[in-house]
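Section 5: illustrative case.
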Protein backbone atom coordinates (compact mmCIF):
# COMPACT_ATOMS: atom_id res chain seq x y z
CA UNK A 1 0.00 0.00 0.00
CA UNK A 2 1.87 3.04 -1.26
CA UNK A 3 -0.79 5.53 -2.38
CA UNK A 4 -1.19 8.55 -0.08
CA UNK A 5 -4.43 8.53 1.92
CA UNK A 6 -6.58 11.52 2.83
CA UNK A 7 -9.84 11.31 4.73
CA UNK A 8 -12.32 14.17 4.34
CA UNK A 9 -15.07 14.37 6.95
CA UNK A 10 -17.50 16.59 8.82
CA UNK A 11 -18.73 15.95 12.35
CA UNK A 12 -22.27 16.74 11.22
CA UNK A 13 -22.26 13.49 9.24
CA UNK A 14 -23.31 10.29 11.02
CA UNK A 15 -21.88 8.37 8.08
CA UNK A 16 -18.51 9.97 8.82
CA UNK A 17 -18.86 8.71 12.39
CA UNK A 18 -19.66 5.20 11.20
CA UNK A 19 -16.77 5.13 8.75
CA UNK A 20 -14.43 6.52 11.40
CA UNK A 21 -14.90 3.32 13.39
CA UNK A 22 -13.69 1.33 10.39
CA UNK A 23 -10.92 3.75 9.54
CA UNK A 24 -9.20 3.57 12.93
CA UNK A 25 -7.64 0.11 12.35
CA UNK A 26 -6.35 1.35 8.98
CA UNK A 27 -4.80 4.36 10.71
CA UNK A 28 -2.89 2.04 13.03
CA UNK A 29 -1.79 -0.12 10.11
CA UNK A 30 -0.54 2.88 8.15
CA UNK A 31 1.15 4.36 11.20
CA UNK A 32 3.06 1.10 11.69
CA UNK A 33 4.23 1.46 8.08
CA UNK A 34 5.32 5.05 8.68
CA UNK A 35 2.65 6.40 6.33
CA UNK A 36 0.01 8.35 8.24
CA UNK A 37 -3.45 9.09 6.88
CA UNK A 38 -4.25 12.81 6.58
CA UNK A 39 -7.41 13.66 8.53
CA UNK A 40 -9.08 16.68 6.95
CA UNK A 41 -12.17 18.25 8.55
CA UNK A 42 -14.25 20.19 6.00
CA UNK A 43 -17.55 22.05 5.90
CA UNK A 44 -20.03 19.68 4.26
CA UNK A 45 -22.55 22.48 3.62
CA UNK A 46 -19.98 24.39 1.58
CA UNK A 47 -19.27 21.30 -0.50
CA UNK A 48 -22.99 20.86 -1.16
CA UNK A 49 -23.29 24.51 -2.17
CA UNK A 50 -20.35 24.17 -4.55
CA UNK A 51 -22.01 21.13 -6.16
CA UNK A 52 -25.50 22.65 -6.22
CA UNK A 53 -26.90 19.87 -4.05
CA UNK A 54 -29.10 19.50 -0.99
CA UNK A 55 -28.08 17.40 1.98
CA UNK A 56 -30.24 14.38 2.88
CA UNK A 57 -31.55 16.16 5.98
CA UNK A 58 -32.91 18.96 3.76
CA UNK A 59 -35.21 16.64 1.81
CA UNK A 60 -38.51 15.61 3.46
CA UNK A 61 -38.85 11.85 3.73
CA UNK A 62 -35.19 11.29 2.98
CA UNK A 63 -34.31 12.88 6.32
CA UNK A 64 -36.37 10.41 8.34
CA UNK A 65 -35.19 7.47 6.26
CA UNK A 66 -31.54 8.49 6.60
CA UNK A 67 -31.73 8.80 10.38
CA UNK A 68 -33.41 5.42 10.73
CA UNK A 69 -30.92 3.85 8.34
CA UNK A 70 -28.00 5.27 10.35
CA UNK A 71 -29.40 3.82 13.57
CA UNK A 72 -29.88 0.44 11.90
CA UNK A 73 -26.38 0.47 10.39
CA UNK A 74 -24.84 1.30 13.77
CA UNK A 75 -26.70 -1.56 15.42
CA UNK A 76 -25.67 -3.96 12.66
CA UNK A 77 -22.04 -2.94 13.11
CA UNK A 78 -22.18 -3.02 16.90
CA UNK A 79 -21.28 0.68 17.05
CA UNK A 80 -22.78 2.75 19.89
CA UNK A 81 -24.68 5.70 18.44
CA UNK A 82 -26.95 8.36 19.86
CA UNK A 83 -28.03 11.34 17.78
CA UNK A 84 -27.20 14.78 19.20
CA UNK A 85 -30.06 16.99 20.53
CA UNK A 86 -30.66 18.57 17.11
CA UNK A 87 -29.71 17.64 13.57
CA UNK A 88 -28.61 19.11 11.28
CA UNK A 89 -26.61 21.44 13.52
CA UNK A 90 -23.88 24.04 13.09
CA UNK A 91 -20.67 21.94 12.98
CA UNK A 92 -18.23 24.86 12.79
CA UNK A 93 -17.27 24.86 16.50
CA UNK A 94 -16.57 21.12 16.41
CA UNK A 95 -14.58 21.34 13.19
CA UNK A 96 -12.54 24.24 14.55
CA UNK A 97 -11.93 22.32 17.78
CA UNK A 98 -10.47 19.44 15.82
CA UNK A 99 -8.17 21.81 13.95
CA UNK A 100 -7.13 23.63 17.13
CA UNK A 101 -6.31 20.25 18.69
CA UNK A 102 -4.07 19.36 15.76
CA UNK A 103 -6.45 17.00 13.91
CA UNK A 104 -4.81 14.10 15.70
CA UNK A 105 -6.63 10.76 15.69
CA UNK A 106 -7.19 11.22 19.44
CA UNK A 107 -8.79 14.63 18.94
CA UNK A 108 -10.97 13.49 16.04
CA UNK A 109 -12.06 10.44 18.01
CA UNK A 110 -12.90 12.58 21.05
CA UNK A 111 -15.13 14.92 19.04
CA UNK A 112 -16.94 12.09 17.28
CA UNK A 113 -17.40 10.36 20.63
CA UNK A 114 -18.77 13.53 22.21
CA UNK A 115 -21.38 14.09 19.51
CA UNK A 116 -22.30 10.64 18.21
CA UNK A 117 -21.51 8.16 20.96
CA UNK A 118 -22.94 10.21 23.79
CA UNK A 119 -25.38 12.36 21.80
CA UNK A 120 -24.08 15.69 23.09
CA UNK A 121 -24.33 19.05 21.36
CA UNK A 122 -21.34 20.18 19.33
CA UNK A 123 -22.82 23.33 17.85
CA UNK A 124 -21.32 26.02 20.12
CA UNK A 125 -18.21 26.87 22.05
CA UNK A 126 -20.25 26.71 25.24
CA UNK A 127 -21.42 23.16 24.52
CA UNK A 128 -17.85 22.03 23.89
CA UNK A 129 -16.20 23.58 26.96
CA UNK A 130 -15.69 20.25 28.82
CA UNK A 131 -14.25 18.63 25.70
CA UNK A 132 -11.98 21.61 25.05
CA UNK A 133 -10.63 21.27 28.57
CA UNK A 134 -10.00 17.56 28.07
CA UNK A 135 -8.10 18.30 24.84
CA UNK A 136 -6.21 21.23 26.40
CA UNK A 137 -7.57 23.65 23.83
CA UNK A 138 -8.19 27.23 25.05
CA UNK A 139 -11.59 28.71 24.28
CA UNK A 140 -10.21 31.53 22.16
CA UNK A 141 -8.53 29.01 19.83
CA UNK A 142 -11.85 28.22 18.15
CA UNK A 143 -12.36 31.85 17.14
CA UNK A 144 -8.74 32.45 16.17
CA UNK A 145 -8.22 33.71 12.63
CA UNK A 146 -5.72 30.97 11.81
CA UNK A 147 -8.15 28.25 12.93
CA UNK A 148 -10.93 29.66 10.77
CA UNK A 149 -8.55 30.10 7.85
CA UNK A 150 -7.38 26.49 8.14
CA UNK A 151 -10.94 25.20 7.94
CA UNK A 152 -11.67 27.35 4.90
CA UNK A 153 -8.46 26.16 3.26
CA UNK A 154 -9.34 22.51 3.98
CA UNK A 155 -12.77 22.95 2.43
CA UNK A 156 -11.52 24.85 -0.61
CA UNK A 157 -8.85 22.22 -1.22
CA UNK A 158 -11.41 19.42 -0.91
CA UNK A 159 -13.70 21.07 -3.45
CA UNK A 160 -10.74 21.63 -5.79
CA UNK A 161 -9.87 17.93 -5.44
CA UNK A 162 -13.38 16.98 -6.57
CA UNK A 163 -14.84 16.00 -3.21
CA UNK A 164 -18.65 16.10 -3.38
CA UNK A 165 -19.68 14.49 -0.09
CA UNK A 166 -18.53 13.15 3.25
CA UNK A 167 -17.00 10.91 4.25
CA UNK A 168 -14.59 10.64 1.34
CA UNK A 169 -11.40 8.59 1.43
CA UNK A 170 -8.91 9.65 -1.21
CA UNK A 171 -6.54 6.88 -2.29
CA UNK A 172 -3.98 8.78 -4.30
CA UNK A 173 -6.11 10.70 -6.79
CA UNK A 174 -9.12 8.39 -6.60
CA UNK A 175 -12.06 9.41 -4.41
CA UNK A 176 -14.25 6.90 -2.57
CA UNK A 177 -17.36 8.57 -1.22
CA UNK A 178 -19.61 7.22 1.49
CA UNK A 179 -19.42 4.75 4.32
CA UNK A 180 -20.57 1.95 2.03
CA UNK A 181 -17.59 2.53 -0.30
CA UNK A 182 -14.99 1.73 2.36
CA UNK A 183 -14.42 -1.87 1.24
CA UNK A 184 -14.09 -0.65 -2.35
CA UNK A 185 -11.46 1.86 -1.20
CA UNK A 186 -9.53 -0.82 0.67
CA UNK A 187 -9.59 -3.08 -2.38
CA UNK A 188 -8.21 -0.30 -4.58
CA UNK A 189 -5.63 0.58 -1.95
CA UNK A 190 -4.29 -2.95 -1.79
CA UNK A 191 -4.55 -3.62 -5.51
CA UNK A 192 -4.67 -0.56 -7.83
CA UNK A 193 -5.48 -2.90 -10.74
CA UNK A 194 -9.05 -3.06 -9.35
CA UNK A 195 -9.71 0.26 -11.09
CA UNK A 196 -7.88 -0.55 -14.30
CA UNK A 197 -9.77 -3.42 -15.94
CA UNK A 198 -11.67 -2.88 -19.17
CA UNK A 199 -15.14 -2.42 -17.66
CA UNK A 200 -13.90 -0.04 -14.95
CA UNK A 201 -12.29 2.13 -17.63
CA UNK A 202 -15.35 1.92 -19.88
CA UNK A 203 -17.84 3.06 -17.25
CA UNK A 204 -15.52 5.91 -16.27
CA UNK A 205 -15.82 7.28 -19.81
CA UNK A 206 -19.52 6.69 -20.53
CA UNK A 207 -21.26 9.62 -22.25
CA UNK A 208 -24.21 11.27 -20.56
CA UNK A 209 -27.52 10.01 -21.88
CA UNK A 210 -30.99 11.54 -21.76
CA UNK A 211 -31.37 13.73 -18.67
CA UNK A 212 -34.52 14.33 -16.67
CA UNK A 213 -36.53 17.28 -17.93
CA UNK A 214 -36.88 20.14 -15.48
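Designed sequence:
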Amino acid sequence: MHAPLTWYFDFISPFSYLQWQRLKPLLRECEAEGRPVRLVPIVFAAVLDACGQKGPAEIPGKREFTYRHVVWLARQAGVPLRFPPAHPFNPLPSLRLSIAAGDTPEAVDSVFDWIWTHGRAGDSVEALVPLMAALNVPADALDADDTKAALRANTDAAIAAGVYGVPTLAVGGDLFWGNDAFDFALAALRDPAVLQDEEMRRVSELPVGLQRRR
